[in-house]
Design goal:
single chain; Glutaredoxin; three-stranded antiparallel sheet; 12 strands; globular
């Protein structure tokens, strides 16, 4: 029988699941997640601890690029298992003292969740016992405007995230939703995209006509076309 000392096992949410709901205190006040951000994309990301160097570089990078994500209708929300006063003191230290890659006087304006009980971190599978029982790994959850988890990326404690990749992945998912396309390996905005297989939208000839001859078909299952991204949201 399970004893009271044993922790309840919570299944980690998966791609396609509704984002687990919770209420929390943050550096920007209380939030009801993800309901407060309905209609927006959300990047929910965890970091191991305040006052640590890798996390500091990540928060400075996210804060300096927040406007880029905002223009993509995306809200940033951070989390660690530290308390609110620790969060506030750390973010003040970042603004007043830290300089990294030319970034300084950086003010973090997006919410940072207090999660001392680790309830939210466990709900989202951010606590990985093989890595640490007391710190959240570097998890990233992409949640769409309907509150559905669309992508999940995990990094170990020692590895800082690639923010160009986070933005690229967000744009790729938004483009896929709006234009019913897919993006190939190493795709960057402005490059050709992949169109659905012939069986789902007519013959290669018909599709060539629909795209004014811009589409290239290498075989029945592999066709590409240029795509100019405009007003993704």
């Amino acid at each position: 029988m399970e004893t009271m000392l044993e922790q309840k096992v919570v299944a980690m949410p998966r791609i396609g699941d509704k984002a687990p709901e919770f209420k929390a205190v943050t550096t920007q006040g209380e939030i009801h997640f993800p309901i407060d951000y309905k209609g927006k994309w959300i990047i929910l990301f965890s970091h191991p601890a305040d006052f640590t160097p890798v996390c500091t570089t990540e928060f400075m990078t996210f804060a300096s690029r927040e406007e880029e994500f905002r223009k993509l209708n995306c809200q940033l929300v951070g989390l660690s298992v530290d308390g609110l006063f620790s969060h506030i003191a750390w973010l003040r230290t970042i603004k007043d003292k830290i300089e990294y890659k030319g970034m300084k006087n950086i003010e973090v304006k997006f919410p940072l969740i207090e999660d001392i009980t680790m309830d939210v971190a466990r709900k989202y599978g951010m606590i990985q016992p093989g890595e640490s029982n007391t710190k959240a790994v570097r998890a990233v959850f992409f949640i769409d405007p309907k509150g559905i988890i669309r992508a999940i990326i995990y990094y170990p404690l020692s590895t800082g995230r690639n923010f160009d990749e986070l933005k690229r992945a967000l744009i790729a998912m938004q483009a896929a939703d709006k234009y019913s396309i897919a993006t190939p390996a190493d795709w960057k905005p402005g490059e050709d995209v992949i169109v659905p297989p012939a069986g789902s939208c007519g013959t290669a000839k018909e599709r060539m006509e629909q795209t004014n001859g811009e589409m290239k078909c290498y075989d029945w299952f592999f066709c590409t076309k240029p795509l100019v991204l405009q007003d993704l949201n």
